[in-house]
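User: Reviewer 2 asked us to show a designed sequence for the structure in our supplementary figure. I'm pasting the structure tokens here. Could you produce the per-position amino acids so we can include them in the response letter?
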């Protein structure tokens, strides 16, 4: 059972992958946590955290957000003062976890993407997001009209935004 004294609301259960990134002195993590797959999904669908967060001064934590995305893409093991943590549960305080964490899930990996856009592109900024969406719509239209195969469209899309 997740603890009622958790410093933030926790959605999930003790056998779920409850890992979130922790980065020392990163202000994005002072009051809440978010699964990075969730953040990436929201951003790919046009939500810009810098327009909303923090609520009292939107955009003021842009550097902290960029650091969070960078650590997500590169892995916390490559960043000093960064690690995976799980929230307080079963009377235990928040704690750091490592690779042998038993509840790891596929979605908590920066290489997982439920959409054709790779998560690694999230750090390139919102300007490229509209370009990705536009190209995706154009390619889908070409596939729908039969002027391009689905496989060719996927290849073109991936090559247009590969690192």
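Assistant: Here is a per-position design you can include in the supplement:
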């Amino acid at each position: 059972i997740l603890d009622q004294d958790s410093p933030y609301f926790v959605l999930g259960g003790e056998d779920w992958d409850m890992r979130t990134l922790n980065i020392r002195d990163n202000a994005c993590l002072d009051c809440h946590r978010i699964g990075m797959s969730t953040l990436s999904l929201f951003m790919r669908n046009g939500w810009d955290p810098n327009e909303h967060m923090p609520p009292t001064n939107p955009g003021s934590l842009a550097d902290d957000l960029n650091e969070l995305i960078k650590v997500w893409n590169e892995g916390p093991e490559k960043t000093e003062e960064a690690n995976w943590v799980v929230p307080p549960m079963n009377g235990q305080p928040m704690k750091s976890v490592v690779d042998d964490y038993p509840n790891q899930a596929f979605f908590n990996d920066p290489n997982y993407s439920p959409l054709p856009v790779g998560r690694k592109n999230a750090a390139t900024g919102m300007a490229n997001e509209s370009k990705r969406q536009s190209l995706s719509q154009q390619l889908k239209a070409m596939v729908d009209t039969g002027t391009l195969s689905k496989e060719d469209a996927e290849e073109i899309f991936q090559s247009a935004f590969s690192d």
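For the response letter, you might also mention the following. Helices lie at 36-44, 62-74, 126-145, 150-160. Strands lie at 20-23, 82-86, 95-97.
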